[in-house]
Amino acid sequence: MSFPEHRPRRLRRTPAVRRLARETHLVPSQLVLPMFVREGITEPSPIGSMPGIVQHSMDSLRRAVAEAAEQRIGGVMLFGVPEVRDAVGSGADDPNGILNRATEAVVAEVGDAVVVQTDLCLDEFTDHGHCGVLRADGAVDNDATLERYTAMGLAQARAGSAMLGLSGMMDGQVGAVREALDAEGFTDTLVLAYSAKYAGAFYGPFREAVDSQLKGDRRSYQLDPGNGREGVREALLDVEEGADIVMVKPALPYLDVLADVKASVDVPVWAYQVSGEYAMVEAAAAHGWIDRRGAIMESLLGIRRAGADAILTYWALEAARWLREEL
Ligand code: PBG
């Protein structure tokens, strides 16, 4: 009998060798925690489809962001849930709107200790739930929406947001917001472009989290799940328009897109592990069907391996604690 010429298993023999041979690492500063703040509540309110995640009150949000800063995760991404909505999403650029007030409060609490980021999209603020304003025929009006986004972006920058997360998938949104920021002197405000954001089923629990009013779907602006090259094209356009960071979303079903985008751009590439990805693991773990911690850490590492420089994940704080334990 002949012996194997190659023995890759040598690199797997002991925990110490495996640790030394590991190609991909995850550290707390690569994790960003998405957070919800709801207008008009005084106690945090649980989200049924996202066990462990809440809609925060202003107070509980402030405390939670302070904890995120203590844990030294990379950042927090804030989403607002307003009490009142209208056709154009007026609450979005109102300095007294819930998201802008919350941003101000949080920045006053933590300053630059953690990167405070804000979702820049109209869907939480419109009474029809779409990410833009609508034409008379009911279709989303791309260019009229850009004017709303620039107003929203300026309001967020004035409130102290360090990074604007443009998640609306309107054409030209990055260029329009960048230009408006620069014209008002906000040249330091970062733009995170949700470049390759796919339409699909994985945002379901998020819609509960923000009390979404959406009927129908977002297929006329978010990408078709079958299209990988189009995701790369969107990322390239966003870089050209001035995006500081581009993102792929959801994460696990789109790792190929993530890898392709990573190979195509020279800015950081992030991924968003979305609500549906969170809910799947939590539900399976609650049944005892999957090892919760193992599945969470494996999914985060896989997203890193595919090319994400940082990851938006609802497990950011817990994962950061585990990562420190493992050191
Ligand atoms: C739009 C936005 C959405 C998410 C983040 N930003 C919802 C959507 O596109 O329908 C989803 C995040 C998640 O599912 O965790 N403001």
Automatic annotation (TrEMBL):
<dbReference type="InterPro" id="IPR001731">
    <property type="entry name" value="ALAD"/>
</dbReference>
<comment type="subunit">
    <text>Homooctamer.</text>
</comment>
<keyword id="KW-0627">Porphyrin biosynthesis</keyword>
<protein>
    <recommendedName>
        <fullName>Delta-aminolevulinic acid dehydratase</fullName>
        <ecNumber>4.2.1.24</ecNumber>
    </recommendedName>
</protein>
<keyword id="KW-0350">Heme biosynthesis</keyword>
<dbReference type="GO" id="GO:0004655">
    <property type="term" value="F:porphobilinogen synthase activity"/>
</dbReference>
<comment type="pathway">
    <text>Porphyrin-containing compound metabolism; protoporphyrin-IX biosynthesis; coproporphyrinogen-III from 5-aminolevulinate: step 1/4.</text>
</comment>
<dbReference type="InterPro" id="IPR013785">
    <property type="entry name" value="Aldolase_TIM"/>
</dbReference>
<keyword id="KW-0456">Lyase</keyword>
<dbReference type="Pfam" id="PF00490">
    <property type="entry name" value="ALAD"/>
</dbReference>
<dbReference type="InterPro" id="IPR030656">
    <property type="entry name" value="ALAD_AS"/>
</dbReference>
<comment type="similarity">
    <text>Belongs to the ALAD family.</text>
</comment>
<comment type="function">
    <text>Catalyzes an early step in the biosynthesis of tetrapyrroles. Binds two molecules of 5-aminolevulinate per subunit, each at a distinct site, and catalyzes their condensation to form porphobilinogen.</text>
</comment>
